[in-house]
Specification:
The protein has about 200 residues and is of the alpha/beta class. The chain has helices at about 15-20, 65-70, 75-90, 105-115, 150-155, 190-200, and strands spanning about 30-35, 40-45, 95-100, 120-125, 140-145, 165-170.
């Protein structure tokens, strides 16, 4: 684990869109520490999506091998690397942690919350194939998924969970699909639109 940068101050994100925006695009893990007088530090861990689709394990743990291993419930390099980063940031098994991830980052967040090695008090994922990850009871949060996103489908059906499942179709049937990036319904900008709709929703 190598720290890329450190910053102090700033405000917490507002809403689902703000949290999704803080998921790193390239630097794999972002950790925010929140301190308050007389209270233990609390943390939010943001985990990045797949960085390379290499089928052979190399220098970057956020690869295709970690996707396959993670969906299969096996140890994955990206999961281990995230846990090392958490420990390096001062997070202990007793620290309250909220995990936020997109795509493979969501799968990593699911696996860490399910491991029982950390005090996960919240879990928020976007477009992750973690439906088959068995989570302990009591972990609250949101899983945001597009029904036309095949990456989500690779994780299998959703198992029992205390989280709220938010689903919508990113592109209506017959609508024009973007052609500049593959799998349009899985792109972060598509999930950002869903996050905006989630923030605007007024349903109890």
């Amino acid at each position: 684990v190598a720290r890329v940068s450190e910053h102090s101050g700033g405000a917490p994100p507002v809403g689902a869109e703000g949290r999704l925006e803080r998921v790193p695009a390239e630097q794999q893990v972002r950790i925010e520490r929140y301190a308050a007088p007389g209270a233990p530090d609390r943390y939010v861990v943001y985990v990045a999506p797949t960085q390379t689709f290499s089928p052979v394990a190399d220098h970057d743990p956020w690869d295709l091998t970690s996707n396959v291993a993670g969906v299969a419930g096996l140890p994955a390099g990206s999961i281990r690397a995230t846990e090392l980063a958490m420990a390096d940031a001062g997070i202990t098994p007793d620290s309250e942690v909220v995990l936020v991830g997109f795509s493979q980052g969501g799968l990593v967040a699911d696996a860490i919350a399910a491991s029982g090695r950390w005090n996960a008090v919240g879990l928020e994922t976007y477009g992750d194939p973690g439906g088959g990850v068995e989570l302990p009871e009591g972990i609250r949060g949101v899983a945001v998924r597009h029904t036309d996103d095949f990456v989500v489908a690779t994780g299998g059906p959703q198992g029992p969970t205390d989280r709220t499942i938010v689903e919508r179709r990113a592109f209506a049937p017959g609508s024009e699909l973007p052609t500049d990036l593959p799998v349009p319904a899985h792109q972060k900008r598509a999930y950002a639109e869903t996050a905006r709709m989630l923030d605007a929703a007024r349903s109890s």
